[in-house]
Amino acid sequence: MEPQKADQLAAPQAVGNAGAVAEEKVADVIDGKAIAAQLRKEIGQGVESLKAETGKVPGLAVVLVGSRKDSQTYVRSKKKACVEVGIKSFDADLPEDVSEDELLKIVTDFNANPEVHGILIQLPLPSHINEQRILSAVSVEKDVDGFHPVNVGTLAMQQRDPLFVACTPAGCIELLQRTGVQIAGKYAVVLGRSKTVGMPAALLLQKLNATVTVVHSRTPNPAEHTRRADIVIAAIGKAEFVKADWLKPGAVVIDVGINAVDDPSDKRGYRLVGDVDYKEARKVAGAITPVPGGVGPMTIAVLLQNTLKSAKRTLQASSSS
Ligand SMILES: Nc1nc2c(c(=O)[nH]1)N[C@@H](CN(C=O)c1ccc(C(=O)N[C@@H](CCC(=O)O)C(=O)O)cc1)CN2
């Protein structure tokens, strides 16, 4: 897809008012749902070409432990997306009380399975399981979630490209690049320093030559930093925490938060909001991702992209030798 300019994404809204027509510029909406659909289309084409070349399709192992409703929903969406693009999924649905050793054995078996090119362990895992031990047991070459310490460490070193980068931060960068947002030379603020989103997002932005500040729960006056930022990535998990007056006019805002807030008027009894006060922020920002329909769909599309990349590495190497 041709990168779109941020200001080509949506027309400014005209706001009428008793006779006089005032024009209020609102931020462009970065449509993650549409961009993810385009990315899945490209992945589907890549899968077809790989199949024509090698006779094989990419395989993704999807490991779910326990019965958390949100994890079940995400896993269902991932398997559905696999079907859509032609990736074969391998399931392991395990009970909440599965032992760490049993889980390790399942990971080891998937590591050895030549039909499996990517292994996804849906997080969070139950508290009796050492998450780091399990994530480190996934083969680096099949770590399509980008959580293995070697892939994390390679990204942190900045000199080389890791085999895989975690899907949510990679999805944020893909959104910026596909909407034509310039990153090099810009000042970016990442809110949140989690291992899965904040830190890798900051490292990716820095690798792309942005100047980056990571703001976290112990940063005094976080708004002093965000107000200077050309790009803000919000990943703190606090509903509508970032207010309009935290933003520089024209800033590009990527909202990673997915927070459920009570809403009796919604049939689910709740609605999802981001970490940014979207309605107010749209009056100040230049472009912004909505929640839902922003970063979330990109997380799944990048997982498929990483799985295709892994399958190509393995299958094209073996077909040429
Ligand atoms: N192994 C992993 N575990 C988790 C990850 C991850 O990347 N790898 N990320 C999150 C959950 N997640 C994927 O697993 C995820 C979250 C949200 C969405 C999404 O598309 N959300 C929709 C809204 C969905 C709804 O209405 O409920 C949206 O934002 O539009 C996809 C994937 C934690 N675990």
CATH topology of one domain: Rossmann fold
Distance between the termini: 33 Å
Radius of gyration in whole Å, from Cα?
21 Å
Q: How many DSSP H or I helices?
A: 10
Globular, elongated, flat, extended or rod-shaped: what is the shape? globular
**Strand arrangement in the largest pleated sheet:** 3-13-10-9-7-8
CATH superfamily of one domain: NAD(P)-binding Rossmann-like Domain
**Shape-level CATH architecture of one domain:** 3-Layer(aba) Sandwich
What structural class do the secondary elements suggest? alpha/beta
Chemical compounds bound to the protein: ligand LMY7XDAE
Low-pLDDT segments, ≥5 res: 1-18
- Major β-sheet profile: 6 strands, parallel
CATH class of one domain reads Alpha Beta
Question: Could you characterize what this model shows?
Answer:
It is a single chain. The protein is α/β, with parallel strands linked by helices. The chain contains ten helices and 13 strands. Among the domains are: about 55-140, 3-Layer(aba) Sandwich (Rossmann fold), CATH 3.40.50; about 165-295, Rossmann fold, CATH 3.40.50.720. The strands form four sheets. A six-stranded parallel β-sheet has the order 3-13-10-9-7-8. A hairpin with a 2-residue loop joins strand 1 (about 15) and strand 2. The longest helix has 26 residues, at about 295-320. It is globular and about 65 Å long. Residues about 1-20 have low confidence and may be disordered. Bound molecules: the ligand Nc1nc2c(c(=O)[nH]1)N[C@@H](CN(C=O)c1ccc(C(=O)N[C@@H](CCC(=O)O)C(=O)O)cc1)CN2. The site of the ligand Nc1nc2c(c(=O)[nH]1)N[C@@H](CN(C=O)c1ccc(C(=O)N[C@@H](CCC(=O)O)C(=O)O)cc1)CN2 has 18 residues, from helix 2, strand 6, helix 6 and helix 10.
